[in-house]
């Protein structure tokens, strides 16, 4: 069985090396929609794959980190990166070019790590991240699965290579959240939300 939860965020970027002249040479933004699809063959104590309310905690925090931010390709021109970080409090630096496809892969890796490190306390079993869909426009989206996120033929994405600005970290429930995620900390779902 598959469940999906839709999230939204506003974000600016440049997609270097793409065919569209405007996209590769000018900062521009999108009203993104992200669908998180979870799957399991089992249902929890309430008859659910995973309580939608639980998706509003750490998973929402991950996606909200990209809201009203600029996302940067860390291999871009260094002077450009320095200026963007200087004039924008909310920024994320990624080890891959900032496309909808790579957003899918980044979100998959972040959320997959979180789910694997989450102690579930309401009878959830076998809950896996099935895929991530990122709608960049009203008519265009990308979808990534586990094989895409951890591909041997696509540029590697590691948690260690994703950087969140201090302003983003300051808004998290726990400023040390990302270090805990990178260091295999076990997160326990709340019994009640």
TrEMBL record:
Enzyme Commission code(s) on record: 4.1.2.50
Catalysed reaction, written as an equation: 7,8-dihydroneopterin 3'-triphosphate + H2O = 6-carboxy-5,6,7,8-tetrahydropterin + triphosphate + acetaldehyde + 2 H(+)
Keywords: Lyase, Metal-binding, Zinc
Pathway: Purine metabolism; 7-cyano-7-deazaguanine biosynthesis
Cofactor(s), by name: Zn(2+)
Gene3D superfamilies reported in the protein's UniProt record: 6-pyruvoyl tetrahydropterin synthase/QueD
Top EC category: lyase
Highest taxon listed in the record's lineage: Bacteria
Coiled coil: none
GO molecular function, one term: metal ion binding
Matches recorded under InterPro entries: 6-PTP_synth/QueD, 6-PTP_synth/QueD_sf
Similarity remark: Belongs to the PTPS family. QueD subfamily.
Descriptive protein name: 6-carboxy-5,6,7,8-tetrahydropterin synthase
């Amino acid at each position: 069985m598959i469940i999906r939860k839709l999230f939204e965020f506003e974000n600016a970027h440049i997609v270097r090396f793409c065919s569209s002249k405007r996209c590769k040479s000018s900062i521009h933004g999108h009203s993104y929609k992200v669908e998180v699809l979870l799957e399991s063959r089992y249902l929890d104590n309430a008859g659910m794959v995973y309580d939608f309310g639980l998706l509003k905690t750490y998973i929402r925090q991950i996606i909200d980190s990209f809201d009203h931010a600029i996302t940067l390709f860390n291999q871009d021109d260094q002077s450009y990166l320095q200026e963007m970080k200087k004039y924008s409090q909310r920024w994320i630096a990624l080890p891959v070019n900032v496309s909808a496809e790579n957003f899918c892969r980044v979100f998959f890796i972040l959320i997959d790590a979180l789910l694997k490190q989450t102690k579930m306390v309401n009878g959830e079993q076998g809950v896996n991240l099935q895929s991530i869909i990122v709608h960049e426009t009203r008519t265009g989206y990308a979808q990534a699965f586990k094989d895409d996120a951890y591909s041997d033929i696509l540029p590697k994405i590691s948690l260690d290579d994703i950087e969140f600005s201090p302003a983003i970290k300051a808004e998290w429930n726990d400023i040390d959240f990302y270090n805990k995620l990178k260091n295999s900390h076990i997160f326990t779902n709340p019994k009640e939300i």
